[in-house]
Amino acid sequence: MERLISHLQVTNQQIQTKAMALLMALLQTAGRLTERELPPCGSLGSLQNNIIHSSGSVGDEMAHYLYVLQSVALNDLEPRMRTPLDSYNQDQREVLHSLRQSAFECESDGSLSHGFVSRSVALRQGVQEAGLLRESSLRSFVLENSSREDKHECPFARSSIQLTLILCEILRIGEPPSETGSDYHPVFFSQDWDCLLNELFCVCIQLLNKTWKEMRATQEDFDKVMQVVREQITRTLSTKPTSLELFKNKVNALNYSEILKLRQTERLHQEETLAPPVLELKERLKPELLELIRQQRLNRLCHGTLFRKISSRRRQDKLWYCRLSPNHKVLHYGDVEEDTDTPPIETLQEKIPVSDIKALLTGKDCPHMKENKGKQNKEVLDLAFSITYDVEEYNLNFIASSRTDFCLWTDGLSVLLGREMSSESMRSELEILLSMEIKLRLLDLENVPIPERAPPIPKPPSNFNFCYDFSQTEQ
After folding, report:
1. Taking a C-beta distance cutoff of 8 angstroms, is the pair 437, 285 a contact?
2. Each residue's pLDDT tens digit, 289-344
3. Can you tell me the distance from the alpha carbon of 77 to that of 65, in angstroms, rounded to the nearest whole number?
C-alpha cells in the first residue's frame, strides 16, 4: 500500500490517475474494510497536497476516484450507524456518565436549577443515539439552553438524533458508490475519517443551536429548523471547503437570513424572472404600470380622506376632510363632524389651487413638527406631511391616520407637482403588478426555456427573385 501511495506524490497526472485507479480497485475488491485495512487520511496526505491542492485542476477521472475513496471510507461507518441502542452496554454507560458529568459539572455547586438538571434524562438517550460529542460543545449547548424560555428550548436529544440522520443521508453512508459519481468533499481528505466525522457533528450541533436561536423556534418548528440546517450543511459542502475550519466559518456565515435570500433568488431564477429578456420586458412595462398607479393615487385623492388635528396639548378631538376636485385642479378642505363619512365637495369651504402648491414636506421638515420639536414621537413624525402654497407663505399640515394614507397622499401630491412617486407602498405595488404582468405574458411559454440573448437575425438573401411582382398584370 505504501509503494502504491508513493506514486500519488509525483507531478505526472497520468501516473497519479493510474495509481488511484489501482488503489480504488483494490479497496473495492476487498469488500468491507476494517479500520486497520483502510488507509487513513494521514497516510494519504499526498491526495490533499499533490492532487486536491495542486496547481492543476482535478480531472473528471481523478474526481471520480476521490469520490469512490470517500464513499468506501464513509461506508465503513455503516455498521456503527446500523447498531441498535444497548442500554446495558457498560462502555456506553461509562461514556454517558463522563459526558453527563462534563455537561452538568456545575450542578454540584447548585448553579443549575433542579428543574434543568432533571433534563439530563433526555440528554442520555440523545448521546447514546448520536454518538460521541466533544465535552466543550455539549457544555456550550446545555448552558445556552438553560437561559432560554421553556418554549424556545432546543431539544438536545431529538436534535442530536435527527442531525446524525441528516449527516448520514448527506454523506450517503451505506450507499454503494455510483459508477459515474464525482462529487467528493475535499474536507474529508484533511484528516482522519473517524475524527473528522465527530468534529463535523460538533460543528453542526452548534450550528443547529445557533439557527434555532435565529429562527426563534419552538418545539412546533423543529422540522423547519432541521430543513434549514440540512440546507446550510449541503450548500456549504457544495462550495468544496478544504478544511474543517473553513467549513465551520462558511456554514456559520450562512445564517437563516442568508438562506431566505438564497431561496428567494433561486425562486426568481426558477421562474425565469431574472433572465435578461424578462428584465428588458419589465423595463418596458414599468411606464404603463406606473401610470396605472398614478391614476389610482389621483382617484384616491379625489375620494378624499379624514384627518385629525393635533393641538399643542396633543388633543385629537377635531376632524377635517381634504379631497381633490375631479378635474385635479383644486384641493378642497374643511372641518367636519365625528360621524362624517364622505362630505360633498361643496361643503368644504376652503380651497387651494394646485397651481399654487410650491412644495411637499414630510417628517421633521414639516412646519407643525418644527413647532413642537422634541415633543413629537417617531410614529407621528412618520405620518406627518405638509404642502406650502402661494409663494411659500402658507402651509396646510397633515397627520395621516396610517402609513397607507401617508403613502397614498404623498404619492398623489407628488404626481400633482410633476414629481416621481417614492413611497414604499408604490414600490411594493409596482413589484406586484410587474410580477403578475410578467407571469401572464409568459404563460404561453411555460416549460419553454428563454435564451439569454435574442437569436441572430439571418442575413438577407442575395436576391429577391422569389417575390411576386404585382406590377405585371396577368395575361
Report:
1. yes
2. 999 999 999 999 999 999 987 665 555 558 899 999 999 999 999 988 877 778 88
3. 19
H helical segments located in 118-243: 120-130, 135-146, 156-170, 193-214, 222-238
d(CA 384, CA 374): 15
| β-sheet bridge partners, residue 380 | none
pLDDT tens-place string over residues 125-171 = 444 444 444 556 666 666 666 666 677 788 887 888 899 899 999 98
| Separation between Cα atoms, residue 370 and residue 457, nearest integer Å | 63
CA nearest neighbour of 416 among 334, 358, 342: 358
Q: Which single residue is written with the C-alpha cell 411555460?
A: 446
pTM: 0.52
Q: Which residue bears the cell 412644495?
A: 359
String of DSSP letters for 212-224: HHHTT--GGGHHH
pLDDT bracket for residue 89 (50, 70, 90):
confident
**Residue ranges of E strands in 202-348:** 305-309, 318-324, 330-336
C-alpha cell at 242: 478544504
Q: Which of 329, 327, 321, 308 is nearest to 347 (CA)?
A: 321
- Give me 320's grid cell: 377635517
Which of left, alpha, beta for 418 (phi over 0: left; psi -120 to 50: alpha)? left
Residue 235, Cβ density class (10 Å: 0-12 exposed, 13-18 middle, ≥19 buried): middle
C-alpha cell at 384: 406627518
CA-nearest of 386, 387, 382, 377 to 423 is 382
DSSP H stretches of helix in 341-457: 367-370, 378-383, 403-416, 424-441
Q: How far apart are CA 323 and CA 396, in angstroms?
A: 13
